[in-house]
Amino acid sequence: MGFRTNLQKLLSNYILLQDILYFLQSIFDKENEEKYYRYGLEFIISNEHLDSSDVSGLVRSVENPRNLEMLLSSFGDVDENMVFIGDEVGREELKNFALFVSPYTRKDEKIGNIFVISPKLTYYEKINAYLSFSINRLSEVFSNR
């Protein structure tokens, strides 16, 4: 790979990390206001591997608070990073998606989960790395509060 390609990858990763940090900051700013935070639907909409029925199925699953609660609670108590792919997600309308879930803690006490929904065709290692980074920062901040 050339210098330009490496620079583009570096900038892309920097922008994604910056977005993650802004998202985490919004969690702390609204800590007592909302139970769920939605971010990044624009990335799903612009994905070339999903069609309009995939996107509308996802929107129906996450934009209605009751539907979102039912979806996320269907995964039960998660104590470690997990990935559910396609049919494992358990919803026909989400068969073309993958769902990543990871718990975060405050001084070794689990206080919540972060869920990431992506197209089934994705970079699993990269998402896991970003999710682990986010979980570590989130747990670190909550433990120091």
Key traits:
single chain, 145 residues, alpha+beta, Beta-Lactamase, three-stranded antiparallel beta sheet, 5 helices, 3 strands
* Overall spatial form: globular
Tell me the major beta sheet.
3 strands, antiparallel
| Spatial ordering of strands, largest sheet | 1-2-3
Q: How many H/I helical runs?
A: 5
Percentage of residues in strands: 15-25%
Assign a percent range to the helix content: 40-55%
Instruction: Report the structural category.
Output: alpha+beta
Q: What is the CATH homologous superfamily assignment?
A: GAF domain
What low-confidence regions span 5 or more consecutive residues with pLDDT below 50? 2-15
Structure report:
10% of the residues are buried. The protein has helices at 3-29, 41-45, 52-62, 65-73, 124-143; strands at 82-85, 97-106, 109-119. A three-stranded antiparallel β-sheet has the order 1-2-3, covered by helices on one side. It is globular and about 45 Å long. The chain has one domain (34-143): Beta-Lactamase, CATH 3.30.450. With 145 residues, it is α+β, with helices and mostly antiparallel strands.
